[in-house]
């Protein structure tokens, strides 16, 4: 008699949320395009979404970056999750390509660092209407915070003043959502973030220290917002 085997869900699933064309003024313009990924954490208390990608309804962004956006709802549904079942959104930071579709999930609380809320209010930092989080939805974090058993936010400033990464522990497995603490898996392995990805050049030492801290956590897997290579220990 045959027995059907159910494949267990991974701890973290990558959501491919689209891409942008990098303008000539971008420090990585030579790459041409930039992939944008979010992540779905399958937690016992309910699914947690990390970042919501870009949108296509802002004329300046459309002209400069030519975004190709995947609906965040479609992306969540594609991994077998009803968007109404999400229990939280984590924004690693509030640049336009990481928070662009927060508004499509208006009932879901959003975890964000207080320093990031301050930074997002500055001119030319992001798309204000995409980064705006209603006060009732805000779950403001100052530094590190455990938001559920085995699910921890870690402050990793450098790329932005209030960047945060996510640590997920499940049994003997540890996964890390680096976000954009560094841009590539190679930079993560070398503990060498690119100065052009820092909020400003003066934050390179801080960004390097943030990356060193993540490496010291010795995860089994690490995931990146703009590099689909998954680090595996």
SSE map:
Elements: E1 12-21, E2 33-41, E3 48-50, H1 59-65, E4 68-69, H2 72-78, E5 88-90, H3 96-99, E6 110-113, H4 114-120, H5 128-131, E7 138-141, E8 145-148, E9 151-155, E10 164-170, E11 173-179, H6 185-190, H7 204-216, E12 221-224, E13 231-232
Parallel strand pairs: 3-5, 5-6, 6-7, 11-12
Antiparallel strand pairs: 1-2, 1-4, 2-3, 8-9, 9-10, 10-11, 12-13
How would you describe this structure in keywords?
single chain; 233 residues; alpha/beta; seven-stranded mixed beta sheet; six-stranded mixed beta sheet; 7 helices
Overall description:
The chain has 233 residues and is an alpha/beta fold. It contains seven helices and 13 strands. A seven-stranded mixed sheet has the order 4-1-2-3-5-6-7. Strands 8-9-10-11-12-13 form a six-stranded mixed sheet. The chain is globular. The N and C termini lie far apart (38 Å). The relative contact order is 0.15. The model has no long low-confidence stretch (mean pLDDT 96).
The share of residues in helices is 10-25%
Judged by helices, strands and strand pairing, the structural class is alpha/beta
Span between termini: 38 Å
Strand order of the largest sheet: 4-1-2-3-5-6-7
- The overall pLDDT average reads 96
H/E topology pattern: EEEHEHEHEHHEEEEEHHEE
Task: Say how many strands there are.
Answer: 13
């Amino acid at each position: 008699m045959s027995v059907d085997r159910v494949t267990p869900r991974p701890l973290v699933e990558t959501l491919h949320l689209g891409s942008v064309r990098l303008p000539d003024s971008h420090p990585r313009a030579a790459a041409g395009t930039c992939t944008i990924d979010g992540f779905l954490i399958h937690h016992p208390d309910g699914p947690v979404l990390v970042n919501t990608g870009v949108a296509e309804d802002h004329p300046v962004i459309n002209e400069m970056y030519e975004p190709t956006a995947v609906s965040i709802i479609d992306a969540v549904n594609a991994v077998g999750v009803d968007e109404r079942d999400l229990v939280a959104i984590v924004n690693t930071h509030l640049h336009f390509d990481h928070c662009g579709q927060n508004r499509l999930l208006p009932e879901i609380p959003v975890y964000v660092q207080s320093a990031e809320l301050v930074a997002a209010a500055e001119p030319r930092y992001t798309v204000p209407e995409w980064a705006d989080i209603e006060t009732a939805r805000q779950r403001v974090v100052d530094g590190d915070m455990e938001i559920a058993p085995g699910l921890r936010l870690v402050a990793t400033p450098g790329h932005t003043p209030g960047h945060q990464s996510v640590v997920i522990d499940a049994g003997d497995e540890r996964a890390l959502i680096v976000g954009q603490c560094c841009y590539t898996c190679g930079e993560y392995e070398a503990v060498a973030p690119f100065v052009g990805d820092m909020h400003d050049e003066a934050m390179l030492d801080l960004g390097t220290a943030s990356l060193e801290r993540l490496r010291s956590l010795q995860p089994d897997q690490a995931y990146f917002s703009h590099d689909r290579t998954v680090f595996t220990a």
